[in-house]
Structures are given as C-alpha cells and as structure tokens.
Design brief:
mainly alpha
C-alpha cells in the first residue's frame, strides 16, 4: 500500500524548497541531484509493497514526478 502521508510530506518539502534564497548554478545542480536521489529512494522503498495499478495511478496524478518510473510497470505485480 502506498504511504500517502510520506508522499504528502515529500511534496511539502519540495514546495518549501522552492522558497529558498538565490543560489549559484552549482548549488542548483547539487540540490537537483539530491532531490532526484531522494525521489529514487522513496520509490524503491514504496516499490516493495506497490502494485502496477498503484504506480499507474501515481503516474496519472503526477506524470512529471512518477512518469520516469513507468518502466517498472511490467516488473511490479498486478495486484496483491
């Protein structure tokens, strides 16, 4: 089952980071790398209990965030 609270907390963290002071190009780069690593870690943690239907739902809701994991659809079980 997807942990909706964890997704909401992560979304809130991303939105709060958007209100940060002016940063250099290098700082933006490393912040983006860190954010992608956190997203990957969250996905891997969630994928343990996730079904392909749940991933499809996440992709439909926020394709810009979850769409990059679409190659996992055939690797996840259809239902539990």
């Amino acid at each position: 089952m997807i942990d909706e609270q964890k997704i909401a907390e992560y979304t809130d963290a991303i939105e709060s980071e958007a209100r940060v002071k002016v940063m250099s190009q290098e700082q933006h780069y490393y912040r983006s790398v860190k954010r992608l690593a956190e997203q990957d870690a969250l996905f891997l943690e969630m994928s343990i209990d996730m079904t392909s239907d749940e991933l499809r739902r996440l992709i439909a809701i926020r394709p810009q965030l979850w769409g990059r994991y679409s190659n996992w659809l055939d690797k996840l079980p259809a239902q539990k």
